[in-house]
Caspase recruitment domain-containing protein 11
Amino acid sequence: ASQQGENALRQQIQRCNEQREQYRITIQNLTTDKQALQRKCLQIERELFQLRERFDALSQNRNNEALCDSCRKYFPCNCSSVNNMNRSNSNADKRIRPPVPMPRYSKESPSDRELRNEVEGLREEVSTLRDTLNEQINLFTDERKRWEEERIKILKFNNSSPNRNAALLNDFTPNVEGICTRKEDLKVLADSKSCLVSCDRLI
């Protein structure tokens, strides 16, 4: 029984070592994926920043061209203040523009729409990459916790196995003594039978 238990423990330890090697490979792969995703996120954020600068420049040019000639003649000194207000508000919110006296906005050009769509697509891609990375990290954390619990159980079982073997040996010793006692009883019984036979012959 002790030999079978020892073999079972060795097989379990071997399986745990194999799982640990698989987890180590998984950790390396996840680390590589994480670094690649971080580089891609940085690249996307850099491109997003460049697109925002281009969009701000186009918005500023469009606001400068929004005033007609009569408005520029009527408000000659307020053009710079209006542009400064537009620039400060564009940093806070790209979609809200301050009111301009006598504005005449032109229609949104296709290039502006393309830039806005590209910016939105990049934002969605960045959020998707971050969600994927967080899911992989959570999955790896759960696997590592489960493997740690199994390792602790195996260590506890290994620590308690010598005590179990000693208990098994103690339980087995009285049985041996009982067998020896039974052999002695059989011997005495055989001796008594031989004495009876000898007495019959004498009679």
Notes: The helical segments are 2-66, 69-74, 79-92, 110-202. The CA atoms of residues 70 and 141 lie 67 Å apart. DSSP finds four helices and no strands in the chain. Residues 111-160 form one domain.
